Amino acid sequence: MTSTKSKKRRKPTSSLLSRRKNVLPSSSSAITTTKAPLPSKLSRTLIRSHHTTQKRLSQAIQQNDTTAIAELTSKLSTSGGLEAYQRASVSGQSSKRGGDSSKILVDWFIELGIPKPTPRSNNGGNNSSSSNCDLSNYRLLEIGCLSPTNTIHSYFPKPQRTLMDLNSLHPDEILKQDFMEFPVPKRADDGYDIISCSLVLNYVPTPSGRGDMLKHITSFMEQALERRRKRLKSLPKNNKNNNSSTNKETGTDWTSTFPAVFLVLPAPCVTNSRYLTEDRLQEIMISMGYEMVRRKLSPKLVYYLWKFVGGGSRKKYKKSELLPGGKRNNFAIVVE
Ligand SMILES: C[S@@+](CC[C@H](N)C(=O)[O-])C[C@H]1O[C@@H](n2cnc3c(N)ncnc32)[C@H](O)[C@@H]1O
């Protein structure tokens, strides 16, 4: 009975798969139009193939190899381009496959005693001291956002969040915006206290591009420190001594977790790369002014919550071999 059911369920999407295992269909218009989650193997193949083609395209652009640029651009477009890749990523986030990665961030918020804003306390971004008892005047910037209903969004009700992606799958709620061209807001009041960068850094095709993305994130964090200082200054004196932001159980001040960056990478980027280990990533982050607050390694992904404290050494990091060996990948971060 059960096996008949599961066979029936697979039928509508099976036409997306070629007869040979793990081969992409020649045209992926079906992938960009279908709403049903793609089979996980097809999602993985699509994601991997998109990353490889993107990386090769970026190399071809650097070498000014016009033939390769034309070939790879055409390959990307016939395989459905960024949108097919995004649909495949959305399929990977379905609740049946564990949900979106920000579920882990919410688990950490709960552990850290960070209170969810209630509708009454949400004052629509008014940066007043009265709301220091919860997140109601804290702001989230999510880079590479596929859905406006990710788990963490319940902590940042509109207008306390800015969601963006190179290609917006929900134009009403997600900005079509390259983060690298998104400036730090002029006024600290319009800035952000937490940035989510989940499975985006590995999308950037070059090691130095990844370093640049971390640096750009850090310039937002510098402004976020200013937001924190301003917020602390605006607290009434009695509130400073008897702080409403102290977690009753742990005795710690949950606001000290901010400003912060939630970073998610495919686990092999730090567990099986020739050029990046967890220690090296931590060195890079410390040199940019971060402290690790939480970390979780799953078989597929690695999740981090980094608190920005400022004052790092701003060291440069080249691509250097840390773990030699044949069966490793080449993921690297170069900080110039
Ligand atoms: C694998 S998806 C990750 C989506 C989601 N955050 C997650 O955790 O599953 C990567 C997304 O990052 C977006 N992206 C990559 N570089 C970006 C940039 N510079 N600015 C905005 N979005 C970017 C891509 O368009 C893509 O939709």
UniProtKB/TrEMBL annotation:
GO terms for molecular function: rRNA (adenine) methyltransferase activity. Its EC number is 2.1.1.-. It is found in: Nucleus, Nucleolus. Transmembrane segments: none annotated. S-adenosyl-L-methionine binds at G144, D165. Residues 1-22 have a biased composition (Basic residues). Residues 235-248 have a biased composition (Low complexity). Residues 1-41, 230-252 are annotated as: Disordered. Residues 24-35 have a biased composition (Polar residues). Belongs to the BMT2 family. S-adenosyl-L-methionine-dependent methyltransferase that specifically methylates the N(1) position of an adenine present in helix 65 in 25S rRNA. This is 25S rRNA adenine-N(1) methyltransferase. It comes from Arthrobotrys conoides. The lineage of its organism: Eukaryota, Fungi, Dikarya, Ascomycota, Pezizomycotina.
